[in-house]
Queue: 2 jobs
Job 1
Amino acid sequence: MTEILLLICAYLIGSIATAVWVSKGVFGIDIREHGSGNAGATNTFRVLGPKAGTFVMLIDMVKGILAVRLALLVPFYQDPENIVKLVNLQIGLGLAAVIGHIFPIFAGFRGGKGIATVFGMVLAIQPVVALCCVGVFLMILFLTRYVSLSSIVASIALPILVLFIFNERELYYRIFAIAVALMVVLTHQKNIARLINGNESKVPLFKNKRVFRRRKDDDE
């Protein structure tokens, strides 16, 4: 029963619609009506610029971290002998948060693709692996300015790191890493097509691209 309540809480944490709330509250638009139509960090970068995109990405990562940390509220899982069960619960909580991000109850079940939230949960479970993936993401982003390509490459790096570099023994974590890479590739098919055709939008890293600004007279 406790685990079910924790999974519900994790889903609700994931349902915090960061991109939607930022776009509506600060810019006066619904991010889902612009760009790719996704309520995630990538589309926020594209439509509202790097400052808003970075903020959304960080908060979405925190959602994954908080969801995983819920497992520590149960004393049973703090016993070193239950480490495998702890990891399994953490993966379940993280996935519940990702589902909440993709289908947020607070935003009409129309969310993003869950990439930042996935990396947040990995950061909470395996910090070194997650930081390596973030490093890959930032390097590709700096070199190409493509957030979508950065997400795809970083996600593919996850199972490579888990299976071959760090040689993670936990079976469910290995399966999870492979599933994440496959999920990201599948959910980015349109982005991949645009990348091949040269039509994918780049993000400005050193300029605050505020396409939509709320003027003072709009509030008066």
Job 2
Amino acid sequence: MGEQTQHQPPTPQPQPQPQQLNGSTIATTTITTTEMANTIPPPPITSPPTKIPARPRKIRKLSPDSTPATGDPNSSLAITTTTTADDSSPAAPDPPKPTPKPGKSKYAQQRAIVVAPPPPRITARSLSYEGEVDIAIRHLRDADPLLATLIDLHPPPTFDTFHTPFLALTRSILYQQLAFKAGTSIYTRFISLCGGEAGVLPETILALTPQQLRQIGVSGRKASYLHDLARKYQNGILSDSAIVNMDDKSLFTMLTMVNGIGSWSVHMFMIFSLHRPDVLPINDLGVRKGVQLLYNLQELPRPSQMDQLCEKWRPYRSVASWYLWRFVEAKGSPSSAVAVASGGATLTQQQQEEQQHQQQQQQAQLLDPINSILNLGACAWGQ
């Protein structure tokens, strides 16, 4: 037999043996270049870095300080929120802020304060309205206990007589610085010259010469005052309808533009002819003296102090002034309005000088009997 060929088994390739390092076995693997190229990913394509703002991440924690709104006694933990910076999570909406409880902080208490609305403002009407004087008296009683004592001592005033503004202003000029009897005599002759009270019109007075007025006892200065008033009516600067509808401040400004009519005369006209409810004659000696006696002041209050002292009487300071005149009359020191209404003499020289110092017009108005006589009258003053 021929030789039999024996097949040799393939020679085994040497396998890498694990290496020993510090007692640890490290396995090594042989990787070909091709395999390595297939296993390593290509580097990523990068773009210029862009700044992305960090978004807050909401981390919720459990806090045992408050009770949930569900009212479950077993769920006594409330969720609070802490904000941290994180670029990967989107911003979550803020939870509603809890309403602060009273007593937690002073800021919560300040927010809880409710400002009360101001009391309703009293709107006063003309004192000739029925029942308006009674409303005024009740208001003054509540506003000033000291004035309430005067109200108890005297009967209420009446404001039920009305004359046209032009006639009342004309009489105001004629009665200036005259006693009641002398003023009445001149006024009677003046009415007769005009053909009656209905004839006292701007055009009628402008037709009268200073000589005609002087013959009935009207001085040249008063004649110029009457003509100035009539011209302002004729030119449309003043009118009866405008005077009735003007507010107090505008009316005071317009009337003091007339020669011979000062602030005191305007105040008397507004109270006794127009029956305005909230007029305070700050230059009237009788009202100032009444305030001094009522509040037991050491000195006579200055006109600049009168508004502050009588503020509580608004909006019926006209009625309060009327009671002060009666108060001074009862004390034996009649005021200008009281002296005229009762037929007394003019003011003393000292009072006249003080009035002249206070007036801003060319001639101070010391006595204005026309307004007090026409509207208050002897009955109003208890005569």
